[in-house]
Amino acid sequence: MRNQNQNLEGRVALVTGAGRGMGGAIAIDLAKAGAHVAICDIDMPALEETRIGVEATGAQCLALRCDVSSSSEVTELFEAIVERFGTLHILVNNAALVPNRPVDTERRNKHYAYLTMPVPRQSLGFTRSISDDEWHRYWDVNVHGLFYCTREALRLMEPQRDGKIVNIASIAGISAMSAHSPHYSATKGAVIAFTKSVAAEVAGANVFVNAMAPGGVATPEFTKYFETVGEEKSNQFWQICPAGRLGTMQEYASTVTYLAGDHYLVGQVISPNGGVVI
Length: 278
What we know:
The chain is of the alpha/beta class. It has eight helices and seven strands, in the order E-H-E-H-E-H-E-H-H-E-H-E-H-H-E. The protein has one domain: NAD(P)-binding Rossmann-like Domain (Rossmann fold).
């Protein structure tokens, strides 16, 4: 089925972190709009599932393992894309490290309770507990990896005077709603700043750079989180979400597909978030 909102016929797209969740949904939606799609991830079984989904639309798909935090692996990825498709028109920087370990769940629960319950005002103690290694791991993937991919993409897009780059940020980068994860929030704020800077730089070459800053995504991981914390803590979360639900992966994917097509947006941050941040 073709995505009717944009016609990406003849375009070549790359979606990083496309092995599962929103990245996979974005890759399939771009294919439905007519694009041929390159996808990468470090989770090859999950990436294979996305490849099958992309090819089911009739689009060509190149699926490769790539750790975007490695500059050399990113270079090899783009070389393979050029060898297969000749160029690249669309880059979706989706690969990211997200806070989903048990300690992250503990921090999230503490923060949501602080936001929604009548508890004494105090420091929540998140930042002082983050190790050097934990801090750097987030920056390596979420910021350095995004830079490596953007740099390679621009080397193709600027000479051809044709390109769209969509960076996946987060409401963590535009609000304090993810104060439970200051390392993650810092990287997403950096993504937004980088988006605006590069957008102003390259728009004159007909390369448009924008960002999507999603709120909560209805992924299996988030569903598992709600099951783990129970009804009371789940209800605390819904108190800060006027829409009363998470955004679906398709809702987010269709936003990215729009940003990958024809429009007049430069350096903008589009934030579908159900009213959590207004």
